[in-house]
Amino acid sequence: MACQQSRYHSFSSASRLQPRPSGVTIDESFLTEDKSTQNRKLLQKRRTLTGQFSMGGHLSPWPTYTSGQTILQNRKPCSDDYQKRVGNCQQHPFRTAKPRYLEELENYLRKELLLLDLGTDSTQELRLQPYREIFEFFIEDFKTYKPLLSSIKNAYEGMLAHQREKIRALEPLKAKLVTVNEDCNERILAMKAEEKHEISLLKKEKMNLLKIIDKKNEEKISLQSEVTKLRKNLAEEYLHYLSERDARKILIADLNELRYQREDISLAQSPGIWGEDPVKLTLALKMTRQDLTRTQMELNTMKANFGDVVPRRDFEMQEKTNKDLQEQLDTLRASYEEVRKEHEILMQLHMSTLKERDQFFSELQEIQRTSTPRPDWTKCKDSSSLSPHADVVAGGPERWQMLAEGKNSDQLVDVLLEEIGSGLLREKDFFPGLGYGEAIPAFLRFDGLVENKKPSKKDVVNLLKDAWKERLAEEQKETFPDFFFNFLEHRFGPSDAMAWAYTIFENIKIFHSNEVMSQFYAVLMGKWSENVYVTQKETVAQLLKEMTNADSQNEGLLTMEQFNTVLKSTFPLKTEEQIQELMEAGGWHPSSSNADLLNYRSLFMEDEEGQSEPFVQKLWEQYMDEKDEYLQQLKQELGIELHEEVTLPKLRGALMTIDPSLDKQTVNTYVSQAFQLPESEMPEEGDEKEEGMVEILQTALERLQVIDIRRVGPREPEPAS
């Protein structure tokens, strides 16, 4: 093993360092003096310090000088010289103690900090002064690193100055906070004193009320005892009078019995009744008649008093029967009310059904009168049956079967018209120019013949998609027709731009069943605004985003329950029937369960001709139906005919009535579109100019049909009559 050779490296230093004497105090003005004054004082202090901090007047590079001792010399391990060096190395172990310079610096810093701690008014700023001096010594001694160390020191000094400024700015706030705290404490103490006074008053009042309650309770107890005593006396008197009455009756009965016995004895002793004294008999008859009269009067009195009285048992039975009958009556009344309401509803349904029946019957008669025989669409399958137009549907029966699948007669007529029109377009080599009239769109103004580029349907769709992408990529200030022609010039050059404009226009005018072409044609001709197309695309994108968020596994699958939840959260204003239609368009069937999985990403795919899936088509159909229903509600709220005039305030009020959630900006947008006024020129609500602005209702509704108008919130329910 190679022996280590000790090396010594030293840094040269022209300056010397001396610690501050223990009797020297720190000048607090150091914190407020400018930088040049501080540097000058620091330089003078450094010159007065002795060189006892360094080793021999030079800075010690500890511990870097020890690294040289670990360098192995290039010696052979078997040589004598190597053995000698190994012996020497074992006898002299390495010593890597701190250099004296570093120890003196640490002692100096420790003494300065102790001096600062002995003071009673030392602050954090004063404690930084020894560190500043040590750092200045390093900056001056290490010339090579002086710029870097100076920049570091300046950065920290700048930050400290910034923090001091912030502290000075917060001092008034601190004083204000103390003042506010004192005011709040005074208010709290005042409130506590008031509450204490009120509590004492309430306690006194409580004691008075308790005394009154005790007094009342005592009176109540005394009255109860008196009532008990009176009841006892009453019971005793009642028993006394009852016994007296019974004794009287017994006495009367005994007297009558004795009288009857006496009479019987007298009759038995006399030889015959007819031998009695007539006067005595007359008197007895008179007394008997008086007793009979008195008894009759008592009997009448008893009948009058107790004639209507019934036994308690009969009364309770009758009362129970009456209660049962009353409950039955209430039940029958409730049932009758329900039946009456159902009858009224059924009568209304019956009347509406009769009206619909009469209307359908009249429509049926009109259709039977004006209808033509239903066409035989099977003829289109066989090209030989289309003798003069055998090539109208290219592709034979297979393609016609594909085109006619799931379409009604009206849609089949559109298919035939598109096929005929596409065939005629393929035969044309040139289009005649439409001239430069004002009624001609700007992108079609041309005289002469224009070449037919004869692109395929797929090429036209791709070109229109590219145009939409460029239109939506950045905000365009020009109108849509001008943008379309500029797009064609940029794509095909100025020489072929007009030819492509005529070619694309003729194609999108024919293919009404293609979504991309029909929507582009409607926007290009001003039937729709661009916001209609943009809003619909944003709605579809937002729905796809919500479904993706619901797909926690990112598998592209959702259960029918999750699908239903996403639809209701994205479209809170749609009815249950509309949600049901969207789910059926997405592939849900009433017979399927909610646990079935749905590949939701396939609902937003398009074929090569730009045709979307039935789910997206159903979204578009519902949007158009909702717009028509919204405008119909607006017309009904206005309550006028289409040819009559409507004022601006009345239209504004009708919009707020049918849709109370509309904000002011949206209402102004709708009204400005209906009256063809810039929003900047719209009069303020309640302005006299509003009353003078009128427009035909049919014209206003047609203008509103162009823009993206929809319900923002639910309509308030009408109060029940």
Structure, explained:
- With 721 residues, this protein is an all-alpha fold.
- Among the domains are: 117 residues, no CATH class; 57 residues; 104 residues, Recoverin, domain 1 (Orthogonal Bundle); 83 residues, no CATH class.
- The protein contains 21 helices and six strands.
- The strands form three sheets. Strands 1-2 form a two-stranded antiparallel ribbon.
- Helix 11 packs across helix 12, helix 17 packs antiparallel against helix 21 and helix 19 packs across helix 21.
- The radius of gyration is 58 Å and the shape is flat.
- The N terminus is likely disordered.
Summarize the structure.
With about 725 residues, the chain is an all-alpha fold. The protein has helices at about 35-50, 80-90, 100-120, 125-140, 145-270, 280-305, 310-370, 395-405, 410-425, 455-475, 480-490, 495-510, 515-525, 530-550, 560-570, 575-585, 615-640, 650-660, 665-675, 690, 695-705; strands at about 430, 450, 555-560, 595-600, 645, 695.
Q: Reading side by side through the largest sheet, how are the strands ordered?
A: 1-2
Q: What spatial form do the alpha-carbon principal axes imply?
A: flat
Average predicted confidence as pLDDT: 78
Strand content: under 5%
Rg (CA only): 58 Å
Largest sheet: 2 strands, antiparallel
Number of helices: 21
What is the end-to-end distance? 111 Å
Structural class: mainly alpha
N-to-C series of helices and strands:
HHHHHHHHHEEHHHHHEHHEHEHHHEH
Low-confidence stretches: 1-35, 47-94, 382-391
Please bin the fraction of helical residues: 55-70%
The count of β-strands is 6
